[in-house]
Amino acid sequence: MSKNTKIDGQHAIVNTASVSSTTDPRVPQPDLHARRMAREAEAWLAFARERGRMAEHTLVRKALGATAFSVRHDARSLAVPSKLVGTAQHQRRLWRLVSDGVEPWAELDLDAHGPLVASLGGEPLGEVQAKHAAWARPLVTFGLRVLVARVTGHETEGYRLGCNVVLAGVGEALARLRDALGTGGDGAASGVTASGVTASGVTASGDGHPGAVALHAPLRLVVPRPGTSHPGSPAPTPAASDPATPDPLDTVLVRAVDGSVRATCHHVRRHADALDWGRLGAGPADLALSVLTRVCGARVAEAHYGAFADAVVAAIPRAGGVVRAADVRAWVAARDVPPAA
Question: Residue ranges under compositional bias (Low complexity) (predicted)?
């Protein structure tokens, strides 16, 4: 018997040269992938436990299911299967998807203001379930995507169609969020390690798509055009730099399920003990002052923070997002330009 063979049980003879131990650098790639999905699922479990209100047994079941799904589909990052709600209002669109077909794993557009409405080709299909929206919303900023899995249902009269989806790229989006929150200010990271993924340049393909796609840019700060002040109807101002390239002075805003907030800028205290956004008031005024001080300096901040709070901070979604430094500079530059004669 060769020195590279052993008896495995009563009958089988195994070639030990082809068997890798847990410390062997030649661990099969599928095993390494499964371990990575398990680590990302563990990180997601901690984050979802902090952000949402799902029961513990539901969270654990979801984490195990997501791990199995991600391994089976060879996902590049943890993917969480789910389904859309509110599909009863969008039956015609769903029937068109059945008749016309849809590209496998087609990416849906997300409206992050209010409920997470998922759309395809500009037409809504439904909403991300509330139990998932609580943890998914802050990750949209960092590359989480919603992909179509399949349309469910049949042609029985009165039966409504549904839409199964996959929340894809969860592990990498969570790592970017934790990395961003660890950059200082009032947003020190806690609970989950970023696993070495930085916000400055990671390629990811979400849910088993062939090849890689570029890192999604953070949600753009929406600011009014010069001369408008209604926060309900803002229009985007072009950034002064490539939006796909994060700026060290970008400010990440995250609101936890208990209402507490984290921001990656130093709190310049003037009116309130805590920062806030998505409304008018003392907390948003301090956030405006803090962001402008961080990006443009104290003099500019003093001159513009009141208008910035009213026009910009009040319009930021309550769940948070990324305040792009380039957009802040563009907003200030637009205000400093005298109106045309």
Answer: 226-248
